[in-house]
Design goal:
Layout: E1 3-9, E2 12-17, E3 21-23, E4 28-30, E5 36-38, E6 45-51, E7 54-55, E8 59-60, H1 61-72, H2 80-93, H3 100-124, H4 137-148, H5 162-168, H6 170-182, H7 191-203, E9 212-218, E10 227-237, E11 240-250, E12 257-263, H8 266-273, H9 277-303, H10 307-314, H11 319-345, H12 350-370, E13 382-387, E14 391-396, H13 407-413
Antiparallel strand pairs: 1-2, 1-12, 2-13, 3-4, 5-6, 6-9, 7-8, 9-10, 10-11, 13-14
Protein backbone atom coordinates (compact mmCIF):
# COMPACT_ATOMS: atom_id res chain seq x y z
CA UNK A 1 0.00 0.00 0.00
CA UNK A 2 1.01 3.61 -0.24
CA UNK A 3 0.74 7.01 1.35
CA UNK A 4 1.52 10.05 -0.80
CA UNK A 5 0.66 13.70 -0.28
CA UNK A 6 1.01 16.80 -2.42
CA UNK A 7 0.97 20.26 -0.82
CA UNK A 8 0.75 23.29 -3.09
CA UNK A 9 0.81 27.05 -2.73
CA UNK A 10 2.13 29.98 -4.76
CA UNK A 11 5.71 29.30 -3.68
CA UNK A 12 5.83 25.72 -4.91
CA UNK A 13 4.70 22.14 -4.48
CA UNK A 14 6.04 19.51 -2.08
CA UNK A 15 5.33 15.83 -2.65
CA UNK A 16 6.19 13.17 -0.08
CA UNK A 17 5.80 9.39 -0.21
CA UNK A 18 6.58 6.39 1.95
CA UNK A 19 8.49 3.35 0.67
CA UNK A 20 6.15 0.48 1.54
CA UNK A 21 5.16 -1.91 -1.23
CA UNK A 22 2.61 -4.65 -0.61
CA UNK A 23 2.66 -7.85 -2.66
CA UNK A 24 0.77 -11.13 -2.57
CA UNK A 25 -2.56 -9.61 -1.41
CA UNK A 26 -0.92 -8.02 1.62
CA UNK A 27 1.07 -11.08 2.65
CA UNK A 28 4.46 -9.43 2.19
CA UNK A 29 5.54 -5.80 2.63
CA UNK A 30 8.83 -4.34 1.40
CA UNK A 31 10.08 -0.86 2.32
CA UNK A 32 12.23 -0.12 -0.71
CA UNK A 33 9.76 1.19 -3.31
CA UNK A 34 10.36 4.43 -5.21
CA UNK A 35 7.13 6.33 -5.80
CA UNK A 36 8.27 9.84 -6.80
CA UNK A 37 10.07 10.54 -10.09
CA UNK A 38 11.18 13.56 -12.05
CA UNK A 39 9.76 13.49 -15.58
CA UNK A 40 12.31 15.94 -16.94
CA UNK A 41 16.00 16.51 -16.30
CA UNK A 42 15.65 20.13 -17.29
CA UNK A 43 12.24 21.36 -16.17
CA UNK A 44 10.20 21.26 -12.91
CA UNK A 45 7.88 18.37 -13.73
CA UNK A 46 7.44 15.27 -11.59
CA UNK A 47 5.29 12.17 -11.25
CA UNK A 48 4.18 9.90 -8.43
CA UNK A 49 2.56 6.47 -8.51
CA UNK A 50 0.23 4.71 -6.08
CA UNK A 51 -2.09 1.74 -6.29
CA UNK A 52 -0.83 -0.79 -8.83
CA UNK A 53 2.92 -0.27 -9.23
CA UNK A 54 2.89 -1.74 -12.76
CA UNK A 55 1.05 -0.78 -15.90
CA UNK A 56 -1.51 -3.54 -16.64
CA UNK A 57 0.26 -5.68 -14.03
CA UNK A 58 3.11 -6.04 -16.52
CA UNK A 59 5.52 -3.10 -16.85
CA UNK A 60 6.77 -1.27 -13.73
CA UNK A 61 5.89 2.41 -13.86
CA UNK A 62 9.41 3.51 -12.97
CA UNK A 63 10.63 2.09 -16.30
CA UNK A 64 7.89 3.93 -18.19
CA UNK A 65 8.66 7.22 -16.42
CA UNK A 66 12.37 6.96 -17.26
CA UNK A 67 11.67 6.08 -20.89
CA UNK A 68 9.37 9.08 -21.11
CA UNK A 69 12.05 11.30 -19.57
CA UNK A 70 14.44 10.22 -22.32
CA UNK A 71 11.75 10.79 -24.92
CA UNK A 72 10.97 14.42 -24.05
CA UNK A 73 14.57 15.47 -23.38
CA UNK A 74 14.68 19.27 -23.19
CA UNK A 75 11.14 19.70 -24.49
CA UNK A 76 9.18 22.15 -22.33
CA UNK A 77 5.41 22.18 -22.73
CA UNK A 78 3.21 25.20 -21.93
CA UNK A 79 1.12 23.57 -19.16
CA UNK A 80 1.14 20.51 -16.91
CA UNK A 81 -2.07 19.48 -18.63
CA UNK A 82 -0.03 19.25 -21.84
CA UNK A 83 2.43 16.94 -20.08
CA UNK A 84 -0.49 14.73 -19.03
CA UNK A 85 -1.77 14.43 -22.59
CA UNK A 86 1.76 13.98 -23.94
CA UNK A 87 2.45 11.21 -21.43
CA UNK A 88 -0.76 9.36 -22.33
CA UNK A 89 0.10 9.69 -26.03
CA UNK A 90 3.57 8.28 -25.30
CA UNK A 91 2.05 5.16 -23.71
CA UNK A 92 -0.32 4.70 -26.63
CA UNK A 93 2.36 5.27 -29.26
CA UNK A 94 4.61 2.64 -27.72
CA UNK A 95 1.81 0.06 -28.18
CA UNK A 96 1.55 -0.22 -24.39
CA UNK A 97 5.09 -1.66 -24.22
CA UNK A 98 3.98 -5.24 -24.80
CA UNK A 99 2.15 -7.62 -27.13
CA UNK A 100 -1.58 -7.45 -27.72
CA UNK A 101 -1.97 -11.06 -26.62
CA UNK A 102 -0.46 -10.31 -23.20
CA UNK A 103 -2.84 -7.40 -22.72
CA UNK A 104 -5.80 -9.62 -23.65
CA UNK A 105 -4.62 -12.20 -21.11
CA UNK A 106 -4.51 -9.52 -18.41
CA UNK A 107 -8.06 -8.43 -19.27
CA UNK A 108 -9.28 -12.04 -19.18
CA UNK A 109 -7.65 -12.58 -15.79
CA UNK A 110 -9.37 -9.44 -14.50
CA UNK A 111 -12.70 -10.68 -15.84
CA UNK A 112 -12.27 -14.03 -14.09
CA UNK A 113 -11.26 -12.35 -10.83
CA UNK A 114 -14.28 -10.04 -11.04
CA UNK A 115 -16.64 -12.96 -11.68
CA UNK A 116 -15.23 -15.26 -9.00
CA UNK A 117 -14.31 -12.79 -6.25
CA UNK A 118 -16.87 -10.02 -6.63
CA UNK A 119 -19.96 -11.54 -8.25
CA UNK A 120 -19.88 -15.07 -6.80
CA UNK A 121 -18.14 -14.74 -3.44
CA UNK A 122 -18.83 -11.14 -2.35
CA UNK A 123 -22.27 -10.50 -3.81
CA UNK A 124 -23.84 -13.94 -4.09
CA UNK A 125 -22.02 -15.69 -1.24
CA UNK A 126 -21.79 -12.61 1.05
CA UNK A 127 -18.11 -13.30 1.61
CA UNK A 128 -18.38 -17.08 1.87
CA UNK A 129 -16.22 -19.24 -0.39
CA UNK A 130 -17.95 -22.58 -0.09
CA UNK A 131 -21.51 -23.81 -0.30
CA UNK A 132 -22.72 -20.94 -2.49
CA UNK A 133 -26.15 -21.48 -4.05
CA UNK A 134 -25.96 -20.29 -7.66
CA UNK A 135 -29.74 -20.14 -8.04
CA UNK A 136 -29.69 -16.51 -6.92
CA UNK A 137 -27.17 -15.52 -9.61
CA UNK A 138 -29.70 -13.86 -12.00
CA UNK A 139 -30.98 -11.65 -9.17
CA UNK A 140 -27.47 -10.58 -8.21
CA UNK A 141 -26.53 -9.84 -11.82
CA UNK A 142 -29.62 -7.67 -12.29
CA UNK A 143 -28.77 -5.77 -9.09
CA UNK A 144 -25.22 -5.11 -10.29
CA UNK A 145 -26.46 -4.00 -13.72
CA UNK A 146 -28.75 -1.41 -12.13
CA UNK A 147 -25.83 -0.12 -10.07
CA UNK A 148 -23.37 0.28 -12.94
CA UNK A 149 -25.49 1.18 -15.96
CA UNK A 150 -25.79 4.82 -14.84
CA UNK A 151 -22.11 5.16 -13.93
CA UNK A 152 -20.21 7.75 -15.99
CA UNK A 153 -18.75 6.61 -19.28
CA UNK A 154 -14.96 6.81 -19.63
CA UNK A 155 -14.19 8.92 -22.69
CA UNK A 156 -10.97 7.10 -23.55
CA UNK A 157 -12.84 3.84 -24.24
CA UNK A 158 -16.25 5.14 -25.30
CA UNK A 159 -15.64 3.72 -28.79
CA UNK A 160 -15.33 0.17 -27.44
CA UNK A 161 -18.52 -1.67 -28.44
CA UNK A 162 -20.09 -4.51 -26.55
CA UNK A 163 -19.45 -6.83 -29.50
CA UNK A 164 -15.71 -6.09 -29.64
CA UNK A 165 -15.45 -6.34 -25.85
CA UNK A 166 -17.15 -9.76 -25.75
CA UNK A 167 -14.89 -11.00 -28.56
CA UNK A 168 -11.77 -9.91 -26.64
CA UNK A 169 -12.74 -11.84 -23.49
CA UNK A 170 -13.65 -15.13 -25.17
CA UNK A 171 -10.98 -16.96 -23.16
CA UNK A 172 -12.44 -15.75 -19.86
CA UNK A 173 -15.98 -16.64 -20.95
CA UNK A 174 -14.91 -20.23 -21.72
CA UNK A 175 -13.56 -20.60 -18.21
CA UNK A 176 -16.72 -19.06 -16.70
CA UNK A 177 -18.81 -21.59 -18.66
CA UNK A 178 -16.61 -24.37 -17.31
CA UNK A 179 -16.99 -23.12 -13.70
CA UNK A 180 -20.77 -22.99 -14.04
CA UNK A 181 -20.91 -26.42 -15.71
CA UNK A 182 -18.98 -27.92 -12.80
CA UNK A 183 -21.70 -26.57 -10.53
CA UNK A 184 -24.42 -27.94 -12.84
CA UNK A 185 -25.57 -24.45 -13.79
CA UNK A 186 -26.72 -23.60 -17.32
CA UNK A 187 -24.62 -20.69 -18.64
CA UNK A 188 -27.20 -19.87 -21.32
CA UNK A 189 -29.75 -18.80 -18.69
CA UNK A 190 -27.55 -15.88 -17.60
CA UNK A 191 -25.45 -15.23 -20.71
CA UNK A 192 -27.22 -12.05 -21.80
CA UNK A 193 -27.32 -10.35 -18.40
CA UNK A 194 -23.76 -11.49 -17.55
CA UNK A 195 -22.33 -9.98 -20.74
CA UNK A 196 -24.17 -6.72 -19.99
CA UNK A 197 -22.73 -6.62 -16.47
CA UNK A 198 -19.18 -7.36 -17.59
CA UNK A 199 -19.29 -4.80 -20.39
CA UNK A 200 -20.77 -2.05 -18.22
CA UNK A 201 -18.50 -2.76 -15.25
CA UNK A 202 -15.31 -2.66 -17.31
CA UNK A 203 -16.15 0.37 -19.46
CA UNK A 204 -17.57 2.68 -16.78
CA UNK A 205 -16.04 4.55 -13.84
CA UNK A 206 -16.07 1.63 -11.45
CA UNK A 207 -13.42 1.38 -8.73
CA UNK A 208 -13.89 -2.33 -8.13
CA UNK A 209 -10.97 -3.18 -10.40
CA UNK A 210 -7.30 -2.54 -9.70
CA UNK A 211 -5.80 0.64 -11.10
CA UNK A 212 -2.64 2.71 -11.01
CA UNK A 213 -2.95 6.19 -9.59
CA UNK A 214 -0.61 8.58 -11.38
CA UNK A 215 0.03 12.13 -10.22
CA UNK A 216 1.78 14.50 -12.63
CA UNK A 217 2.78 17.81 -11.05
CA UNK A 218 4.94 20.88 -11.36
CA UNK A 219 5.08 23.79 -13.80
CA UNK A 220 4.57 24.19 -17.51
CA UNK A 221 6.47 26.86 -19.41
CA UNK A 222 3.54 29.32 -19.21
CA UNK A 223 2.54 28.58 -15.60
CA UNK A 224 3.82 30.66 -12.70
CA UNK A 225 1.96 28.63 -10.06
CA UNK A 226 2.15 24.85 -9.60
CA UNK A 227 -0.45 22.27 -10.66
CA UNK A 228 -1.13 18.66 -9.75
CA UNK A 229 -3.14 16.31 -11.96
CA UNK A 230 -4.31 12.92 -10.69
CA UNK A 231 -5.06 10.17 -13.19
CA UNK A 232 -6.52 6.70 -12.86
CA UNK A 233 -5.09 4.23 -15.37
CA UNK A 234 -6.71 0.80 -15.46
CA UNK A 235 -5.15 -0.88 -18.48
CA UNK A 236 -6.04 -1.67 -22.08
CA UNK A 237 -9.42 -2.78 -23.43
CA UNK A 238 -9.78 -3.64 -27.11
CA UNK A 239 -6.67 -1.67 -27.99
CA UNK A 240 -7.79 1.43 -26.07
CA UNK A 241 -6.20 2.77 -22.90
CA UNK A 242 -8.73 2.91 -20.07
CA UNK A 243 -7.94 6.02 -18.06
CA UNK A 244 -9.48 9.26 -16.86
CA UNK A 245 -8.54 12.45 -15.06
CA UNK A 246 -9.67 12.18 -11.46
CA UNK A 247 -8.73 15.66 -10.27
CA UNK A 248 -6.80 18.78 -11.26
CA UNK A 249 -5.41 21.08 -8.56
CA UNK A 250 -4.28 24.45 -9.90
CA UNK A 251 -2.95 27.18 -7.65
CA UNK A 252 -4.43 30.55 -8.62
CA UNK A 253 -4.83 33.92 -6.97
CA UNK A 254 -8.19 32.73 -5.64
CA UNK A 255 -7.32 29.11 -4.80
CA UNK A 256 -3.85 29.56 -3.37
CA UNK A 257 -3.41 26.42 -1.29
CA UNK A 258 -4.08 22.68 -1.59
CA UNK A 259 -3.37 19.57 0.44
CA UNK A 260 -4.00 16.41 -1.56
CA UNK A 261 -3.56 13.04 0.20
CA UNK A 262 -3.38 10.08 -2.16
CA UNK A 263 -3.87 6.34 -1.61
CA UNK A 264 -4.11 5.75 2.17
CA UNK A 265 -5.49 9.11 3.18
CA UNK A 266 -7.51 8.42 6.35
CA UNK A 267 -4.95 9.77 8.84
CA UNK A 268 -4.25 12.89 6.79
CA UNK A 269 -7.96 13.54 6.23
CA UNK A 270 -8.51 13.23 9.99
CA UNK A 271 -5.84 15.86 10.64
CA UNK A 272 -7.28 18.14 7.99
CA UNK A 273 -10.94 17.81 8.93
CA UNK A 274 -10.72 17.27 12.68
CA UNK A 275 -12.74 14.05 12.48
CA UNK A 276 -11.93 10.52 11.38
CA UNK A 277 -13.86 9.68 8.15
CA UNK A 278 -15.32 6.40 9.48
CA UNK A 279 -16.40 8.15 12.67
CA UNK A 280 -18.22 10.76 10.60
CA UNK A 281 -20.08 8.00 8.76
CA UNK A 282 -21.02 6.37 12.07
CA UNK A 283 -22.35 9.69 13.38
CA UNK A 284 -24.59 10.05 10.33
CA UNK A 285 -25.79 6.44 10.67
CA UNK A 286 -26.48 6.89 14.38
CA UNK A 287 -28.40 10.09 13.67
CA UNK A 288 -30.57 8.20 11.18
CA UNK A 289 -31.29 5.51 13.77
CA UNK A 290 -32.24 8.14 16.39
CA UNK A 291 -34.60 9.91 13.98
CA UNK A 292 -36.26 6.61 13.01
CA UNK A 293 -36.72 5.67 16.67
CA UNK A 294 -38.23 9.08 17.47
CA UNK A 295 -40.65 8.78 14.55
CA UNK A 296 -41.62 5.31 15.73
CA UNK A 297 -42.34 6.56 19.26
CA UNK A 298 -44.34 9.56 18.04
CA UNK A 299 -46.36 7.35 15.68
CA UNK A 300 -47.07 4.97 18.57
CA UNK A 301 -48.41 7.80 20.72
CA UNK A 302 -50.47 9.27 17.87
CA UNK A 303 -51.90 5.84 17.07
CA UNK A 304 -53.76 5.74 20.37
CA UNK A 305 -56.10 8.49 19.20
CA UNK A 306 -55.62 8.78 15.43
CA UNK A 307 -54.44 5.76 13.41
CA UNK A 308 -54.42 7.70 10.12
CA UNK A 309 -52.08 10.30 11.58
CA UNK A 310 -49.86 7.56 12.99
CA UNK A 311 -49.62 5.99 9.54
CA UNK A 312 -48.66 9.33 7.99
CA UNK A 313 -45.99 9.89 10.64
CA UNK A 314 -44.52 6.42 10.06
CA UNK A 315 -44.30 7.17 6.34
CA UNK A 316 -42.17 10.32 6.82
CA UNK A 317 -39.11 10.32 4.56
CA UNK A 318 -36.10 11.09 6.72
CA UNK A 319 -33.62 11.33 3.84
CA UNK A 320 -34.03 15.13 3.33
CA UNK A 321 -33.31 15.63 7.04
CA UNK A 322 -30.25 13.39 6.86
CA UNK A 323 -29.01 15.26 3.79
CA UNK A 324 -29.40 18.56 5.63
CA UNK A 325 -27.59 17.19 8.69
CA UNK A 326 -24.73 15.85 6.57
CA UNK A 327 -24.44 19.13 4.67
CA UNK A 328 -24.34 21.15 7.90
CA UNK A 329 -21.76 18.79 9.39
CA UNK A 330 -19.54 19.09 6.32
CA UNK A 331 -19.94 22.87 6.36
CA UNK A 332 -18.88 22.97 10.01
CA UNK A 333 -15.84 20.82 9.27
CA UNK A 334 -14.91 23.00 6.30
CA UNK A 335 -15.30 26.32 8.12
CA UNK A 336 -13.82 25.32 11.48
CA UNK A 337 -10.99 23.00 10.45
CA UNK A 338 -10.20 22.73 6.76
CA UNK A 339 -10.38 26.39 5.71
CA UNK A 340 -8.14 27.74 8.54
CA UNK A 341 -5.53 25.05 7.82
CA UNK A 342 -5.56 25.70 4.06
CA UNK A 343 -5.26 29.44 4.71
CA UNK A 344 -2.11 28.72 6.70
CA UNK A 345 -0.76 26.35 4.04
CA UNK A 346 -1.25 29.09 1.46
CA UNK A 347 1.32 31.39 3.12
CA UNK A 348 3.99 28.82 4.03
CA UNK A 349 7.44 29.10 2.49
CA UNK A 350 8.44 26.21 0.24
CA UNK A 351 10.78 24.73 2.87
CA UNK A 352 7.84 24.48 5.26
CA UNK A 353 5.73 22.78 2.59
CA UNK A 354 8.29 19.99 2.42
CA UNK A 355 8.36 19.63 6.20
CA UNK A 356 4.56 19.43 6.44
CA UNK A 357 4.37 16.88 3.64
CA UNK A 358 7.02 14.67 5.24
CA UNK A 359 5.35 14.77 8.64
CA UNK A 360 1.93 13.88 7.23
CA UNK A 361 3.46 10.71 5.79
CA UNK A 362 5.32 10.05 9.05
CA UNK A 363 2.12 10.37 11.10
CA UNK A 364 0.33 7.96 8.78
CA UNK A 365 3.17 5.48 9.21
CA UNK A 366 3.14 5.97 12.99
CA UNK A 367 -0.60 5.31 13.26
CA UNK A 368 -0.22 2.12 11.22
CA UNK A 369 2.58 1.01 13.53
CA UNK A 370 0.83 1.61 16.87
CA UNK A 371 -2.58 0.23 15.87
CA UNK A 372 -3.65 -3.34 15.01
CA UNK A 373 -3.79 -2.40 11.32
CA UNK A 374 -1.26 -3.84 8.92
CA UNK A 375 1.90 -1.71 8.68
CA UNK A 376 1.23 -0.89 5.04
CA UNK A 377 2.83 2.55 5.27
CA UNK A 378 6.47 2.76 6.27
CA UNK A 379 10.12 2.82 5.35
CA UNK A 380 12.16 5.87 4.35
CA UNK A 381 10.19 8.94 3.30
CA UNK A 382 11.09 10.57 -0.02
CA UNK A 383 10.36 14.28 -0.36
CA UNK A 384 10.55 16.36 -3.55
CA UNK A 385 10.13 20.12 -3.74
CA UNK A 386 9.38 21.92 -7.00
CA UNK A 387 9.40 25.67 -7.53
CA UNK A 388 9.38 27.89 -10.59
CA UNK A 389 12.83 29.29 -10.01
CA UNK A 390 14.73 26.35 -8.50
CA UNK A 391 13.12 23.49 -10.43
CA UNK A 392 12.90 19.92 -9.12
CA UNK A 393 14.80 19.55 -5.80
CA UNK A 394 15.11 16.38 -3.75
CA UNK A 395 14.79 17.22 -0.04
CA UNK A 396 15.06 13.57 0.96
CA UNK A 397 15.73 10.63 -1.28
CA UNK A 398 16.83 7.06 -0.66
CA UNK A 399 19.34 5.33 -2.93
CA UNK A 400 19.88 1.63 -3.33
CA UNK A 401 23.61 2.32 -3.68
CA UNK A 402 26.31 4.33 -1.95
CA UNK A 403 26.43 7.77 -3.56
CA UNK A 404 30.16 8.34 -3.00
CA UNK A 405 30.98 5.09 -4.82
CA UNK A 406 28.87 5.89 -7.87
CA UNK A 407 29.86 9.34 -9.06
CA UNK A 408 29.71 8.04 -12.63
CA UNK A 409 25.96 7.56 -12.21
CA UNK A 410 25.36 11.22 -11.40
CA UNK A 411 27.75 12.31 -14.12
CA UNK A 412 25.93 10.23 -16.73
CA UNK A 413 22.54 11.39 -15.49
CA UNK A 414 23.31 15.01 -16.27
CA UNK A 415 24.91 14.46 -19.66
CA UNK A 416 23.38 16.74 -22.27
CA UNK A 417 21.88 14.28 -24.76
CA UNK A 418 22.18 16.78 -27.60
CA UNK A 419 25.79 17.91 -27.20
CA UNK A 420 27.28 15.08 -25.15
CA UNK A 421 28.52 17.64 -22.63
CA UNK A 422 27.64 17.80 -18.95
CA UNK A 423 24.32 19.59 -18.52
CA UNK A 424 24.10 22.76 -16.50
CA UNK A 425 21.80 21.88 -13.61
CA UNK A 426 21.97 25.16 -11.78
Amino acid sequence: MTAIVGILNKHGIAVAADSAETIGNGIKIYNKANKIFNLSKYHPVGAAVYGNASFSNLIPWDIIFKLYRERIGKLCLPKIEDYVNNFISFIEERSYFTETKELENVLCNNILSYFNEYIIINRLGHGQRIGIDLRGLPVVLNEIKKEVENAPIIDSIKEVTKESFVASISGALKQIKHILAQNKYDYKTIESILLDVLYLSFTRKENIHGYSGIAIFGYGQDEIYPCLYRLKIYGVICGKLKWYLEEACKVTNKNNGFVRPMAQSDVMVTLLSGIEPKLQQLIVQLTAQVIKENIKQIASIAGKTNKTLAKDISAIDIQPTLNLFNAELNSMIQNNHVAPLINTIAILQKEDLAEVAENLIYLTSLIRRITPDQESVGGPIDVALLSKGDGFIWIKRKHYFEETLNKNYFGKYYIDTDSGKEANNE
